[in-house]
Amino acid sequence: MDKPYRVYVIQNVAGRFYIGLSEDVAARLQQHNEGVSKWTRLRGPWKLVWQSTAVTLTEARKLEIFLKSQKGGDKFYEATGLPRRSPSGS
Question: What CA–CA distance (Å, rounded) separates 60 from 2?
């Protein structure tokens, strides 16, 4: 395997998810919380709630696209094992 990548899911206190991929998830999470990423800048703070095993870039891109296309649906929760949250955030 060339450089290993991981797909990750971060979540803010409002329950919103952001899905991305990175070679260094911890550093990327820090960037999200420091406002480097435009979409996550004003929606944090963020916490890591799931990440994949190490995969190739091609596999990571496929998984990222799959999760983004399923976001909020049954297959997203099945793939990540994340619990569903109620609208009240409990």
Answer: 12
Q: Which of 69, 29, 64, 65 is nearest to 49 (CA)?
A: 29
Burial of 59 (0-12, 13-18, 19+ CB in 10 A): middle
For residue 72, the Cα-to-chain-centroid distance in whole angstroms is 12
Contact 31/19 with Cβ under 8 angstroms?
A: no
pLDDT digits (tens, 9 = 90+) for 29-88: 999 999 998 889 989 999 999 999 999 999 999 999 999 999 679 999 999 999 987 554
Token code pair at residue 23:
């070679």
Beta strands in 1-90 (DSSP E): 6-12, 17-22, 46-51
Backbone angles phi, psi at 60, to 5 degrees: -65, -45
